[in-house]
Target: Hsp70-binding protein 1
Amino acid sequence: MSEDRQGRRYPQNLQGVLQLAVDAGSAAEGPTPVEPMSEERKTWLREALADVCKGQMDEVEQMKQCLAILHKEEGSEQEREGEEEREEGDEDERESAFEMLSELCENLDNARDLLTLGGLDLCVSQYLCHIQSGLRWRAAELIASCAQNMPQVQVHLLNIRALPKLLQLTDSDPHPTVRVKALYAVSCLVREQDAGLQAFLSHDGFSVLMRGMQSENEKLRTKSAFLLLNLLTSHPEQKDTVVSMGMVQQLVSVLRTPHSPFHEHVLGALCCLVEDFPQGLKDCRNPGLGLEELLRQRAKELQGKDESQEELDFCERLRLMCFQRQQPSDDNGMDR
Model:
């Protein structure tokens, strides 16, 4: 469907049609007198406008059809009990409906329409807790697609308490893909959204991120560390909350696990907690953590690896902030 859209010669919304009309009226070269629009051009523009409106209506109808498929779940589970083949077919149909909705809602107008049609309420009330993991993660993915850069959708999802459910899925769902997609949706609700951040804090979201970084799921570890770094960078006022949880000690513990690319984000988060924050600096300097030697060894391992340059930069920056001014006097103030 995306390829079909890209191939259209007409715009995809009414604003684009208006621009098309302006462009069509100003396309002539040179200072020619203003003349009435030719019948041919009127016909072409009229057809283009009709085609665009038809395309928009078609997409709304497609969303309605998808929602009708998803609504079939309601009140029919007992009727299908024991009919395994039919259940599998119905699950495939619903998964396809979710995939179609996710594609359609890449268009922000469609995401807004889905909100109006009640599709997001359906996702939160029925599918985030669905027994089938394939439907849980697709519901979370659709929520993320609609919420991204859409304050109106974000506020609605927060009002219907989507965030606590998504945090719970991130924290404890048995299926790894569900956890990753749920965290993606959490990110879309809390980044650049003050109300989302407050809800995140009230549900101990930073602890969820910490446990995500300690999981065996590589994607979850990476996305948890990245979101932590992003939130600390955007909201330095949260340093006290995070440090008081023992986050410095936990992050250093994560760095001692077998090396992984996501350690770059962990080091970045530690840099945030140290910069202009005395308690974070004090925690990092605690001799019991052995952080200085860990950073020295890590920097040595990363030397000469172009793909690890940013991690090396964070490593060196953290070492300088924490330990450069602590060198013994007989070292002449030089970093060992």
